[in-house]
Amino acid sequence: MKTIIGNWKMNPGTFIEAKRLFEATKKIPTNSKKVELIIAPPHMFLRELSKGYRGTRIEFAAQDISRDQEGSHTGETSATQVHDTGSTHVIIGHAERRALGENEEDIHAKVLMALEAKLNPIIAIGESERDAHGDYIKTVRRQITTALDGIPAARFKNITIAYEPIWAIGAEHAPDAHAVHQMVLLVRKTLRDFYGEKAMKATRIVYGGSVNEENARDIFSVPELDGVLIGRASLDPIKFATIARAAAETSV
Ligand code: 13P
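ok -> structure tokens follow
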């Protein structure tokens, strides 16, 4: 089974366009035994898209939630409110949110909030650069262990880790399959070291950063990788369909 998550980010500009994009995405033929499709539109469009959808093949994710349950938090959206839109997932800790000041403690609090509200967290991690001393390895391990601190092994089946190196987001090229595999192994090893074999096996790991219709097949060939998190190519149904086809053809 391969998971494809389309992060629309702050696109498109109007609900009519969002509906059109969703209608086109909906038509992408996928075998639900082989491919799990998750769409993360802006909060503003989540409820109407999700409630208007009669199918079961596509699931919905928010792009962020508040670390608080309710109260005086102007402009924030709670995990419970997101769950109430019919969404099943939430992206937490995306690099573009971390760049706005979200820290690792916020991310940990949001993961707990999501699980409490029965939302499956998609936790985005990834280094900003590859330094010669290998500090990026420590960064990635720390991001994982702070986000998951204290979470019981039984909850790991609800967790997805999205390895998205910042240098590959919105870039021209994604790293090759070998480089992605190295990081998938690091994520799995970190999970095993800190939470045990069962938690490691239960967690889904996806790669994000410049996945497109040309490199998708290569990335789907990475062993022990469960899927991809896509930005730009999720806004183009033709590209998204090609990626979904590659996922189905490489899925076992
Ligand atoms: P791109 O696929 O546009 O590089 O974006 C990746 C991303 O940030 C998905 O969350």
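The chain has one domain: 2-250.
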